[in-house]
Design goal:
There is one protein chain. By secondary structure, the protein is mostly beta strands. Helices cover 0% and strands 27% of the residues. The strands form two sheets. The protein has a four-stranded antiparallel sheet, with no helix packed on it.
Length: 131
């Protein structure tokens, strides 16, 4: 018996490099119960939801297709990103005009989701008192 197979995107996509597309034909030898179709999954360090792709069967010879689609789940193993803000480098205020203090905000690892960071400023005088 032979059957053709091909992968298809679900929430996992080839464009996102989640997995490598695969297609071809497999042969199940006489008296053998099954064969395996292998799909290569690409590792990453991006925090994201678990994702799925499918393997679809078509064009069976010497058999009929019962369930023609298998779903593969790629489980996320990356940690939830941590957000940190670093101190701004010292800046000289000058006598006129304005300057910008730039505080680097960093994620510990990338994410498949947009990260929204709300921030506010507050001031303290050198003596520790609020302004």
């Amino acid at each position: 018996m032979t059957v053709s197979y091909s992968t298809a995107d679900g929430s996992a996509t080839i464009a996102n490099s989640d997995y490598v597309a695969a297609s071809g034909t497999v042969t199940i030898p006489a008296k053998a119960p099954s064969v395996t179709v292998t799909v290569t999954v690409n590792g990453d360090t991006k925090f994201e939801d678990d994702e799925t792709c499918t393997v679809n069967l078509s064009n069976a010879s010497n058999a009929t297709i019962g369930d023609g689609q298998g779903v593969g789940t790629i489980s996320n193993d990356d940690t939830t990103p941590t957000i940190t803000v670093a101190d701004a480098p010292a800046i000289t205020e000058g006598n006129t005009g304005t300057k910008q203090a730039k505080f680097p905000v960093t994620l510990s690892n990338t994410s498949g989701s947009q990260i929204l960071v709300l921030y506010s400023t507050s001031g303290r005088h050198r003596d520790g008192g609020e302004r």
